[in-house]
């Protein structure tokens, strides 16, 4: 889908990391951007930086697990420039470490609420509007290399709830592609490798019902600091959206390693099954 100057995009988690990269890359192409983030002051700052650079943007506060907040954002976003939203990037996400059998239930609830129900809220808010206005539209969810298999522990960490949630995002995105086929909405999923971001400190915005906020030690950010720059990630993502890609990558070798390992194991298991049962 070729992006057109004047289109309106909503980017969640737009105040930092991949989200900010997407916002700036869209604005550079003339897209009007709603920078939506649970940290409203940071969203305002990103929007102001875009305006200073000659783009059009507005920062808005959004907690993606709140359906009412989504409804309010949609009403405002469609009226800001008298042009309906035709691009939605469900990018907001949180991560936390933990094993499958020892991670607290509230951590699982938090990770799935933000990473899975957040995109669901975005889709169910904006897809009906997009179908009604009929303009060529795109909805992109941010998954992870974790959605492609299981990254090496040294790079991907031990993040059981995060990995499981990102696999759910992959399944949901595949269903979107099927369910929107033949309509004016195209779907896609970003599967980034390691990118510079604040996801290592996601607990700073954890909602009260999941235990409330806490600050992570600065050393937790060392791994993310070695990742691909968020500016490059944003440019690559928007390039692939314009190319009409469903699977969207940032780093390349990282994602390929995870996908190839998963595919190799699954293919071998299927071959063994068919040989055993002659089917």
SSE inventory with pairings:
Blueprint (H helix, E strand, L loop, with lengths): L7 E5 L4 H12 L3 E6 L2 H13 L4 E5 L5 H14 L4 E6 L14 H29 L3 E6 L10 H4 L3 H20 L5 E6 L31 H4 L4 H13 L4 E2 L4 H25 L2
Parallel strand pairs: 1-2, 1-4, 2-3, 4-5, 5-6, 6-7
Structural overview:
The model has no long low-confidence stretch (mean pLDDT 96). The protein has 279 residues and is an alpha/beta fold. Helix 3 (67-80) runs parallel beside helix 4 (105-133) and helix 4 (105-133) packs parallel to helix 6 (160-179). The chain has one domain (8-253): Rossmann fold, CATH 3.40.50. It is built from nine helices and seven strands.
Q: What order do the helices and strands follow?
A: EHEHEHEHEHHEHHEH
What is the CATH class designation? Alpha Beta
Catalogue the unreliable spans: none
Number of domains: 1
The CATH superfamily appears as NAD(P)-binding Rossmann-like Domain
CATH fold-level label = Rossmann fold
Major sheet summary line:
7 strands, parallel
Strand content: 5-15%
Widest sheet, order of strands: 3-2-1-4-5-6-7
């Amino acid at each position: 889908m070729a992006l057109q100057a004047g289109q309106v995009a909503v980017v969640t988690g737009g105040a930092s990391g991949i989200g900010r990269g997407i916002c700036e890359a869209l604005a550079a192409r003339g897209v009007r951007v709603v920078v939506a983030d649970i940290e409203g002051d940071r969203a305002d700052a990103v929007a102001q930086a875009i305006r200073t650079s000659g783009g059009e943007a507005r920062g808005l506060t959004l907690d993606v697990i709140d359906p009412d907040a989504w409804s309010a954002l949609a009403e405002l976003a469609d009226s800001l420039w008298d042009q309906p939203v035709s691009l939605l990037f469900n990018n907001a996400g949180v991560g936390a470490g933990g094993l499958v059998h020892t991670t607290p239930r509230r951590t699982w609830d938090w990770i799935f609420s933000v990473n899975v129900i957040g995109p669901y809220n975005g889709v169910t808010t904006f897809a009906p509007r997009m179908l009604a206005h009929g303009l060529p539209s795109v909805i992109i969810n941010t998954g992870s290399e974790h959605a492609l298999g299981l990254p090496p522990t040294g790079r991907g960490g031990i993040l059981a709830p995060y990995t499981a949630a990102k696999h759910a995002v992959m399944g949901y995105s595949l269903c979107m592609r099927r369910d929107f086929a033949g309509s004016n909405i195209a779907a896609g999923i970003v599967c980034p490798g390691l990118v510079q971001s604040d996801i290592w400190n996601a607990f700073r915005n954890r909602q009260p019902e999941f235990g409330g906020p806490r600050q992570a030690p600065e050393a937790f950010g060392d791994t993310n600091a070695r990742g691909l720059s968020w500016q490059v990630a944003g440019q690559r993502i928007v390039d692939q959206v314009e190319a009409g890609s469903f699977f969207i990558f940032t780093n390349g070798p990282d994602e390929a390693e995870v996908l190839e390992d998963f595919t190799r194991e699954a293919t071998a298991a299927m071959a063994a099954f068919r040989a055993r049962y002659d089917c």
